[in-house]
Amino acid sequence: xxxxxxxxxxxxxxxxxxxxxxxxxxxxxxxxxxxxxxxxxxxxxxxxxxxxxxxxxxxxxxxxxxxxxxxxxxxxxxxxxxxxxxxxxxxxxxxxxxxxxxxxxxxxxxxxxxxxxxxxxxxxxxxxxxxxxxxxxxxxxxxxxxxxxxxxxxxxxxxxxxxxxxxxxxxxxxxxxxxxxxxxxxxxxxxxxxxxxxxxxxxxxxxxxxxxxxxxxxxxxxxxxxxxxxxxxxxxxxxxxxxxxxxxxxxxxxxxxxxxxxxxxxxxxxxxxxxxxxxxxxxxxxxxxxxxxxxxxxxxxxxxxxxxxxxxxxxxxxxxxxxxxxxxxxxxxxxxxxxxxxxxxxxxxxxxxxxxxxxxxxxxxxxxxxxxxxxxxxxxxxxxxxxxxxxxxxxxxxxxxxxxxxxxxxxxxxxxxxxxxxxxxxxxxxxxxxxxxxxxxxxxxxxxxxxxxxxxxxxxxxxxxxxxxxxxxxxxxxxxxxxxxxxxxxxxxxxxxxxxxxxxxxxxxxxxxxxxxxxxxxxxxxxxxxxxxxxxxxxxxxxxxxxxxxxxxxxxxxxxxxxxxxxxxxxxxxxxxxxxxxxxxxxxxxxxxxxxxxxxxxxxxxxxxxxxxxxxxxxxxxxxxxxxxxxxxxxxxxxxxxxxxxxxxxxxxxxxxxxxxxxxxxxxxxxxxxxxxxxxxxxxxxxxxxxxxxxxxxxxxxxxxxxxxxxxxxxxxxxxxxxxxxxxxx
Length: 730
Prior knowledge:
Blueprint: H1 6-19, H2 28-59, H3 72-103, E1 106-108, H4 116-130, E2 137-139, E3 153-159, E4 173-177, E5 185-187, E6 196-200, H5 201-207, H6 209-212, E7 218-228, H7 242-253, E8 258-264, H8 269-279, E9 286-289, H9 298-302, H10 328-334, E10 337-341, H11 347-358, E11 362-369, H12 377-387, E12 391-396, H13 404-417, E13 420-422, E14 429-430, E15 434-441, E16 444-452, E17 464-471, H14 474-488, E18 513-515, H15 519-537, E19 541-546, H16 552-563, E20 567-572, E21 589-594, E22 599-600, E23 603-608, E24 613-618, H17 624-628, E25 630-636, H18 640-656, E26 661-664, E27 670-672, H19 683-694, H20 701-705
Parallel strand pairs: 1-6, 8-9, 11-12, 12-13, 14-25, 17-22, 19-20, 20-21
Antiparallel strand pairs: 2-4, 3-4, 3-7, 5-6, 7-8, 10-17, 11-15, 15-16, 16-17, 18-25, 19-23, 21-26, 23-24, 24-25, 26-27
């Protein structure tokens, strides 16, 4: 086998996430969080990947980025087998965790276990907050089959036999939608020293069914959950207004075809057959569980304030250079600034933007927004910039999956404020992360630029590892300006173009590598050049860190380099179609996957040995969609000081990890490494240690990142030392 299947590889990534729920290095509530993450990942897999596969099978379409020649029918069968294995492991992991949590004082309880005061509390809770929302439904001759919303948790009830025979149309079953706008788990009142007790919301609803169904008794009550196709259905020729088209798409999603039905093992077969017929699904799309349905609700339990059951808190630092000047433009003018999130605070960017908003010499701001999040101080600052007389342009990517609603809200708000909002292309996602500021200095316009591997989202910047660069390099700023002009202007990058004559209109950038035109070819050229150099010197090296590696042309180039003796270290968090360790082909390639406290998200490409090397950083993974169907950029690191930091402090630190690293075998299995038994080394913990030793201590993160908006003279959020001064000797 020369290539691993990308879907099976993605499921293997999710299995590695699940394994973190039993990793002894992870505190108990962190284990619970990984279980919830695994559940959420599976939901996304069905909504996107399985939904697409279902259409491919039905329409007999081949997938152009599957290189293992597996038929769709065989593949979907293999996928379901793997998913069932993961579901079984997930249920077992949950049972083990709640048993340990109970020993730590966090108990999941049923309604019939409550004492008098707790019963009174939940009775009031149900009557005041739950009951008014609930709508009892039945399926009978007078009532159609109920609608089940995507990922909604429902209770299905089957009345006891002969109980309703007096009715002309007795229901086959009844159902209730468990409110998803209420907490999934209810924290119960407790006495001091009793620990924490949580009651599942659906358990509370079950205890009060008699109030909703007029004392009817049920022989079966159990949960049901439906997953629908959330893949896009945007046709370029039919769209004249991308914003309106996306709004319609979001509304229609809830009624898309079903791709998964989750029920308990003892769900009545006669009722299951009704669901199967009405939802138009096959038996293979029904998944049985022995435990609770939907572990994503466990995120609420994770928030329980028991710090000894979580990772030790870490507050991101500010770069020490920030002590040298209060003017961030002056700091960038002195030399480029690298930030490594979440170890370096995202406040660095909010200060940069805030300074641009409030500086009278700044005349224009341009920014790309992919996932701004639920609440964004950045969006508010861009609005403030317009109010301050700046020319502001924002490229909002509406097609950021699962964040479409948020992006539409921000887009409307920005437009209303007078921001020049551009939605990019219908057929290409604008996935690049860049912000450029034009400032009057000494009679001319100086541009300052920030580029990143991650989104302009303060929340994810505290959870994802990303790399950002501040620079005023003339070539880079010129390239970023041209990239904005490309996205906001004439659509030269239509996916049906062959790009053969594109250089007539779009010459190569000075420094940036941009998709969908030059990025893949540029990376292949860099791999080839390192192979040629290796033939002369014998010390060729390539280190690549990405989220996914499934592009065949890149993989074949790496195979070619490996077969010539180039040493290749790959750090691939998720999907990887490259097979390491194949004789004569990939013997010199090692593939690692790091799953830890923070989500690995940075993309770094390093070509050359320690003496001389090139480094590119950016937003693109090695995937066909990133190279051909997205606007991506990789930016070069020109500063020797920063290049050394990325190579020696970041990449090589990852290569030393022996705690959170999984090594891919030629069989497709991932094994945890244990090369140094007596010395435990965790890369992410090392990065925290580096930040604490070198950085400036900041105020709490949430306070820090919101500081500066609308406040021209706000001070940096530096923490004041609380150490008592030493007594002077008499």
